[in-house]
Amino acid sequence: MDAYSRTRLLLGSDGMEKLKNAHIAVFGLGGVGGYVVEALARSGVGTLELIDHDTVSLTNINRQILATRETVGMEKSEAAKRRVAAIDPEIQVIARHQFFGPDTKAEFDFSKYTYVVDAIDTVTGKLALVQAAQEAGVPIISSLGTGNKLDPTAFRIGDLYETSVCPLARIMRKECRRRGIEKLKVLYSLEEPIKPEISPDDPILQELPEGRNALPGSVSFVPAAAGLIIAGQVIRDIVGK
């Protein structure tokens, strides 16, 4: 008996070996990405490369598994590394406190990845990540919009060009066509986005990143569900289930 004995009952010894030998890169360690990492670590993935340029803030606590009162102010990549070590210290973790985008993608060796998870929240970063993964022939799954949603049962996994409703999917379809990207596995929601209720003097507006005029609302259970669904898809793809 070991930590993964119950998982082995479903995935088999060969499947567990595939996960142990896998090197999965998770780009973005927020509400979605944190739960992806959690599930991958608890499934016995051998190597996790965890990339995020942000630090944990107080307002992350409502929805991000890496965010606690103890980790506020910590680099998210370091918080993720510590959490994985607490789950299984034998997992190799490469923590990178780094921004990913068109200007930095050359600093990443995609040829070593078994699978890539895109959980970042900028369109330019997503497009650069998808292009880099596909040029290297590495499977990738992208998380589309989870903000302003309340229904975790509305998530679906499919090809980008078969999506509907999701505003971010609409933008990604247009930009992927321009770049000759013919297919992309994504997680998206069929739920119509809810318009956040926010007053002009709400302190949360101080968190607006440069160049943005709005922040999406989010809750504890929607990004968590998205992250777990994505992790499940990655695991099934790797083991062939």
Description:
This protein has 241 residues and is an alpha/beta fold. The chain has helices at 5-20, 31-41, 76-87, 123-135, 167-178, 221-239; strands spanning 23-27, 47-51, 92-96, 115-118, 140-143, 155-159, 185-189. The protein has a 7-stranded mixed sheet with strand order 3-2-1-4-5-7-6, sandwiched between helices. Strand 1, helix 2 and strand 2 form a beta-alpha-beta unit. Helix 2 packs parallel to helix 3 (76-87) and helix 2 packs across helix 6. The longest helix has 19 residues, at 221-239. 41% of the residues are buried.
Relevant terms:
seven-stranded mixed beta sheet; alpha/beta; 6 helices; 241 residues; 34% helix; 14% strand
Radius of gyration: 17 Å
In which order are the strands of the major sheet placed?
Answer: 3-2-1-4-5-7-6
Q: Order of helices and strands, N to C?
A: HEHEHEEHEEHEH
Average pLDDT confidence is 95
Q: Supply the helix-strand structural class.
A: alpha/beta
Number of H- or I-type helical stretches: 6
Helicity range of the residues? 25-40%
Give the strand tally. 7
